[in-house]
Amino acid sequence: MNRHYFRMASITLMAVALSACASTFRSDVTSFHVATPPAGAKVVLVPIDESRQDSLEYRQYASAIQGILEQSGFVGARDDAPDYVIGFDVAVNEGREKFRTYPAGGFAGSVWWNRGYAWGGWWDPFFGGPGFGGPGFAGPGFGGTNVTARTVYRAELRVEIREPDGTMIFEATAETESRSRSLPALVPLLAEALFEDFPGANGVTRRVKIDLEGREKP
């Protein structure tokens, strides 16, 4: 094997990895529940933060979440008394810089991603353990490396399901890291991830992947 072979192999592997990331939405979903609403249950959506009751932005999020709920077997209560009240809240942070190295002028040893950023005192569950690490392309290396930086944002959707008397029976959080800070684009995908395999294992964080092939990517 020669340098040209290693260079082409490295470029090809990176292209495949980046292509896979671009066409897949990933979210970490954690849910807790003591009961599961039956199929056909009538529900109404409300912001958890009561000050958002009249927000046009939150009405759009509610509409997007309602569409996912209907796919999961729930029914909008409309003018009827609801069987359950579903509260929701959304958030996105100010972002952080994420660094990546790649070969410059040839096959260059290793390609690493920042896979363990300490975010506000807790480890980023999306990328795993602390520090720099994780799978890459390893070898003795030829030439140098280039380093690129990009801003990434962490977005979150929180959902609570309560009985009409206020008793909570389900709560869950879906989180993702994205280069986009657009909640209108991210909330429908977070809702889809959160209600996939509803209600999910109790007290377990699961990785949900959604194929974005043919969809508009956030």
What's this, in brief?
It contains 3 helices and 12 strands.
Q: Strand percentage, roughly?
A: 35-45%
List how many beta strands DSSP finds.
12
Q: What low-confidence regions span 5 or more consecutive residues with pLDDT below 50? A: 3-21, 106-141
Oligomer: single chain
How many helices does DSSP assign? 3
Task: Give a structural overview.
The protein is 22% helix and 38% strand. It has 218 residues and is α+β, with helices and mostly antiparallel strands. The strands form three sheets. Strands 1, 2, 3, 4, 5, 10, 11 and 12 form an eight-stranded mixed sheet that branches. The protein has a two-stranded antiparallel ribbon with strand order 6-9. Helix 2 (56-71) packs parallel to helix 3. The chain is elongated, with a radius of gyration of 21 Å. The two termini are 40 Å apart. Mean pLDDT is 78; it is low at 3-21 and 106-141.
